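Re: that chain you flagged

S.,

Sorry for the slow reply, it's been a week of failed gels. I finally had a moment to sit down with the sequence you sent. For the record, here it is as I used it:
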Amino acid sequence: MRTRTLLLLAVACGTAILVAGVAQFVRLAGQDEPARPVALGVVVTVGDLAVVVEGIADDGRQVRVDVALGGVDDGDAAGDFRLVVPGASIAPAAVSDTDGCGPATVASQRCTLTFVLPEDPGTTRVLVLHRGDDQARWDLLAG
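Prediction finished late last night. Pasting the structure tokens below so you have them in one place:
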């Protein structure tokens, strides 16, 4: 190959890298910031659901989270919660009326969510609630 051909290929490759970098920058600039953590005891509205995380209990095998839910009639509001630990996103186990986690109503009601931890859950605990386009998260520490 001639020198001129090699120089043109190098310029073309550099231009392609520059265009890809600009496209990535534009994509990242348009993203929303992640939800800030909510403190325990603070009322937050996620979509149409008002939520207060009142307390947690972590025995290393399962995490129980006491919440108050209200503001909307929803048959499975408690099922929208996830507990995130290193390597896993855990849905609540056996959400039922016995835990107070029956259908949510406009009136606030207390509920205990139980999450069964995996074999090696680490020490990080993050409770996440997604409803529609809204999200809230609570940073919980292992007990």
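What I noticed first: The mean pLDDT is 84.

Talk soon,
D.
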